[in-house]
Design a protein that fits this description.
The protein is an alpha/beta fold and 289 residues long. It is built from nine helices and 13 strands.
């Protein structure tokens, strides 16, 4: 279905935002639009919403399955503002997810279980949000793939990830069960990455609530939403495998000529399977088996 504007979607599409899960895909450019939307449709989201400029094309088979909303995602905080408008319009308790084009959600056992099944279990554990790690993908051969994007030749870093304690800015004390995570090409090429964009943690799956606000650093104003687990045991986490940093580094004139290859001794071909991410410790199954 097509909408006239984001405001039109929030009014006429309100019944879609009652329970979820609803995927909000923010499309910044024309890279891997169809594969991104197909991937999230296959995850089992009840609704997939493509927020994208009118000039971008969609294959007819994909367009018939998604809700297309005209939107320019490029201005600063455009995505944050849109997510907050959807939160305000949705029924409290509705599960939402957001990502960009050329990003792909993986969660434990996603090959055989739907995202709805996973979130039902997560909710039974009294969790209203899920931590996702943004795992950088990049083409192994930049000569063959100068945009750094290739589904067939995708690589990821198998090590080099770390976490630092997150402090309360007012008290300076560590926040309970909150960490800032780093790694991937954002860490290896940090001289080209703004400091605010170096973290790889994102609370991408969450339940709406009255007064809930997404902040520009991908955290929420409700601190429990920003925790990686409940107080009594480990919880599920997920991964968003993303070409976004790689394509930006190769598109940016200030970095493209400095980077001849993203590969290093700890690169590995991406297998497009949750087992690889679990084995590398890049997501957590918690108590879900």
């Amino acid at each position: 279905m097509m909408y006239a504007s984001l405001e039109d979607f929030l009014q006429t599409g309100k019944p879609l935002l009652r329970k979820g899960p609803v995927a909000l895909i923010f499309i910044e450019d024309e890279v891997e639009i169809a594969t991104t939307l197909r991937h999230h449709l296959n995850c089992g989201f009840k609704q997939v919403v493509a927020l994208m400029p009118d000039a971008f094309a969609l294959p007819p088979d994909v367009e018939a399955l998604v809700h297309r909303v005209p939107y320019d995602c490029t201005p600063p905080e455009a995505v944050t503002n849109a997510v907050n408008k959807v939160i305000a319009a949705a029924t409290p308790g509705c599960w939402l997810y957001y990502c960009y084009n050329a990003e792909y959600l993986f969660y434990p056992f996603c090959e055989t279980r739907s995202v709805t099944e996973m979130l039902s279990f997560h909710m039974e554990e009294r969790r209203a949000a899920m931590l996702t790690y943004v795992i950088d993908l990049y083409a192994g051969d930049l000569t063959a793939h100068p945009t750094a994007v290739s589904i067939e030749d995708a690589c990821l870093d198998r090590s080099g990830y770390y976490a630092q304690g997150r402090k309360d800015p007012t008290t300076g004390e560590p926040r309970d069960r909150q960490l800032d995570f780093f790694g991937g090409i954002r860490w290896r090429h940090e001289e080209h990455i703004p400091e605010a964009s170096r973290k790889i943690d994102r609370i991408a799956l969450f339940r709406t609530d009255k007064g809930l606000v997404l902040q520009p650093d991908h955290t929420f104003n409700a601190q429990e939403y920003n925790t990686y687990a409940c107080p009594w045991h480990h919880n599920l986490t997920a991964a968003i495998c993303s070409f976004r940093a790689a394509k930006a580094l190769k598109r940016n004139p200030g970095s493209t000529f400095d980077i001849k290859s993203f590969k290093w001794h700890n690169s590995a071909p991406f297998e497009w399977h949750s087992r690889q991410l679990l084995d590398l410790g890049l997501m957590e199954p918690g108590q879900w088996f």
